[in-house]
Structure formats: C-alpha cells, structure tokens
Amino acid sequence: MRAQFVLSEIGVGLRRNLTMTFAVIVSVALSLALFGGALLMREQVSTMKDYWYDKVNVSIFLCNKTDAASAPKCSKGAVTGQQKEQIEADLKKMDIVENVHHESADEAFKHYKEQYSDTAIASVITPDQMQESFRVKLKDPEKYKVVATAFAGRDGVESVQDQRNILQNLFDLMNGMNIAALGVMGLMLIIALMLIVNTVRVSAFSRRRETGIMRLVGASSFYIQMPFIMEAAFAGLLGGAVACVLLLVGRYFLIDHGIALADKMQLVNFIGWDAVFAKLPLVIAIGLLMPAVAAFIALRKYLKV
Fold first, then answer.
1. Distant-in-sequence, close-in-space partners of 156: CB < 8 Å, separation ≥ 6
2. Measured between alpha carbons, how far is 207 from 12 in angstroms, rounded to an integer?
3. What DSSP string runs through 60-115?
4. For residue 191, how far is the Cα from the chain centroid?
5. Sheet with 133-138: strands ordered across
6. Are 283 and 32 contacting, i.e. CB atoms less than 8 angstroms apart?
7. What are phi and psi of 221, to 5 degrees?
8. What is the pTM of this model?
9. Where would I find the H helices in 94-207?
10. Disulfide-capable partner of 253 in 12, 152, 206, 258 (CB 3.0 to 4.6 Å)?
11. Strand 97-103 versus strand 157-162 pairing type
C-alpha cells in the first residue's frame, strides 16, 4: 500500500466534508473532555475521602446539667465522674480504637468561641452549657457502628456522632455531579458516533466511482477502506487532543489560577497535575480508536461496490 495515495485520499475526504469533520472533532472533544473530567472527579472524591476519613473522629457527647431537662437520654442527670472513667476505660479496651481524647466543657467553650466569635449566640453561651465529650480516633473509620452500638444507650451519654456524616453530603453531591457528567458524556458520545457514521457514509457515497474503479482493478477491501478509516481516526485524534487541552486548561483555571479553588479551599486536598497527565494517554487512545472502529463498522454497510 502506498502511503502517499492513502494520505492524499485522507486530504481529499477531509476537504470534501470539512463542516462535518469539524462537527466530529467538536463532539469527540466535548465527550472525551467530560469523560476525562468524570475520571478526575472520581479520583478527587476518592482522594478527599482518604484524606478526611483519616482525620475524622467519633464524638461521644456526655450529658450536662442543661441536657437533663431537655434530652430524654439524659433524664437521669448529668454524667458522673465514675461514668466518665468507665466510658474512657471501655473505649481504650476496644481493638478498633486508636486513641481517645477527653474534651472538657471549658475546652469545648473555648473552641466554640474561637469558631463562632462573630455570631450573636456566642455572647450568651456559658461554659456550663457546653457538653463534655470523648473524641475517638478509630483505626478503621468504617467501624463507627461498633462504637455507636456500645455507647449510645449508656447512662451519661447524650449522643454518639460520626463526623463522616458531615462530609458525606459533600461526597454525595460530588458523586451526583460525576454521574451527571457521565450521562452528558454518553449523550455526546452517541452524537459523535452518529456524526462519524454519517461522515463516512457521505464520504463513501461521494467517492463511489473511484472506489468502484479500485475494486475492478483488484484492490482489496482493506486497501479501499483504509483512507476512510484514517479520516475518522484523524478527526478523532484532533478531538482527543482538544479534549486534553480542555482538561489541562480546566485544571489550571479551576484549581491553580482563575477561580483558584486551591487558595479558597485550603482544607481540600486537590488532585495534582500528575493525575491529569495520567489520564491524557487514555483520552488520546479513545479519541483515536473509537472513530476508527465506528468507521470500519459503517464501511461494511455503506461501502459496497
């Protein structure tokens, strides 16, 4: 097979269907950008879970004097010194517990004032209204229910809270956005495939005379089909390259500059450039292979001489 002939046929096909080729490039670029973005979003959620779940604690809030009148679980009164000692001793006996920290009412009041000093309620809160608590760090955060089951019904315990629940809504939102991105990507992918098939069909129809002559002089089906497949692959490759640029630009403006989420949300452990670069070869490969396979399948139907 002469490479010069194949390349010339590719050029002819691209010029004849310039508008449709451009549409293919755009649709492939958008669908692959959404695909890459969904992969990065999933990795971001996983990274955040690993980072935050390693830091969250299980909090065992103890009854105080004010809770005795308002909380049913504290109807027997405020927690006693003996109850606190027993709770702490039982916690330290558990294999799943890494460490236990007791936060007194005065410490809780100090932390509250530091965090909510600008609010109106901070000026009327007193230390005796704050709850003592045990902050429990687990070796495996997934074992929260073991602690909850063991201590939720004890005398002197007002509630057992897993701090992961505070973060779970954020993770659910991000997962929902990820699913939405995958849905839009699927729609764009279908549009791209339809455009590729239509472009191949139009190109094959416009060159039916040339392909008929090639078949008469003994050219193989693969030889005849190769220019059409290469056209689709080239358009897909350009679309994949544009998608890579969109992913790089998106990472640059969303996290590092422009919106600069890294500066505004310093507590979030964002994925690095290495994660983005690791996805680019996959995006390029899909951009190259997907249109080529679609063109090959379409040619079996439309390139009959």
1. 62, 63, 74, 76, 78, 79, 80, 83, 84, 87
2. 10
3. EEEP-TTHHHH-GGGTT-SPPHHHHHHHHHHHHH-TTEEEEEEE-HHHHHHHHHHH
4. 24
5. 97-103, 133-138, 58-62, 157-162
6. yes
7. -60, -40
8. 0.64
9. 105-115, 144-151, 164-206
10. 258
11. unpaired
Longest CA pairwise span in the chain (Å) = 100
Q: What are phi and psi of 186, to 5 degrees?
A: -60, -40
Mean predicted confidence (pLDDT) in 154-158:
83
In whole angstroms, give the CA distance from residue 132 to residue 123.
Answer: 20
pLDDT at 220: 64
pLDDT above 70 covers a percentage of the chain that reads 73
H or E element at residue 225: helix 221-251
What is the per-residue pLDDT across 225-267, written as a single tens digit (0 to 9) for each?
A: 777 788 888 888 999 999 999 999 988 888 877 666 777 776 6
What does DSSP assign to residue 132?
P
Residues 6+ apart with CB under 8 A from 186: none
What is the Cα Rg of the chain in Å?
31
Q: CA 248 to CA 79: how far, in whole Å?
A: 56
Cβ-proximal residues to 276 (8 Å cutoff; 6+ apart), any chain: 40, 247, 248, 251
Cβ 292 vs Cβ 24: under 8 Å: no
> What is the DSSP-derived secondary structure letter of residue 139?
S
Q: What pLDDT score does 305 carry?
A: 45
Residues 1-21: tens digit of each pLDDT: 455 555 555 565 556 667 777
